[in-house]
Amino acid sequence: MAFMVLWQFHFGPEALFAKAVEVHEKKASIMASGNFIKDPISAISFGIALMFGTAGLPHILMRFFTVPNAKEARKSVFWATTWIGYFYILTFIIGFGAIVLVSSNPVFKDAAGKLLGGSNMAAVHLANAVGGNVFLGFISAVAFATILAVVAGLTLAGASAVSHDLYATVFKHGKASSANELFVSRITTVVLGIVAVVLGIVFEKQNIAFMVSLAFAVAASANFPVLFLSVLWRGCTTRGAAIGGFLGLLSAVLLTVLSKAVWVDVFHYASAPFPYASPALFSMAIGFAGIWVFSVTDKSARARIDQAGFDA
Asked: Which of its termini does the chain have fewer beta carbons within 10 Å around, N or C?
């Protein structure tokens, strides 16, 4: 899709950007940070979420647990981040291509002048604009298959975490039967599906960019501090990692709920208690601080084992 967009502008990004500025109602202001980020603190916080949240995403973390040794782990992470970075670059082309080829074309708008299906359909309409119905069908199929793959993967990961990590390891101390573990996994799958459907209905009109920013903020606050300090700090303990990670997770979700995107746009309150667009700047700091405080104050036998194993 990006290739077909650039082909219409003789592979000149400058020409694409210039045309987008020309046809967009906000003109040159679209080259700035936009309406989603309106202040420096939000810009810094959102940037932190995107930079450090990437390292904490399941797409990256799974690379450490599906390889035979450290060398292959580094290679796996390298290729994963390479393709993720490649995708980030393509979003610029696809976004500005949609401004030029979709937003200026009345075919893709309803009677009120709004994009058919909402703003989240811009990329799908762009496929139609550059490749016709055949390419539209192909991109729609890819998008649908990707959604199913992600949902299936996350559901399996969640069910496995609850049934194996929590139920079998924590609550049953490794003595749970396979049948009971499978039963808990099935119940968890149903519960996760119900919760996901309910949240999907609640956030139906929410911009997908906000949902992505929430995922990155959670990853940067809950997963990245644990990953970073457990690898680079000798004093990190299990208790510190667990409590600090939970503090980062809870603060990221709580501050997101208290922000305008949820407090005002979803719950329809007059103003938001948390004034910034992304919580990562604050929630990630809470995660790091929690790991440090609860690690240095941990004098348990488990802490001595953790610290003694750092060199290995």
From this structure: C
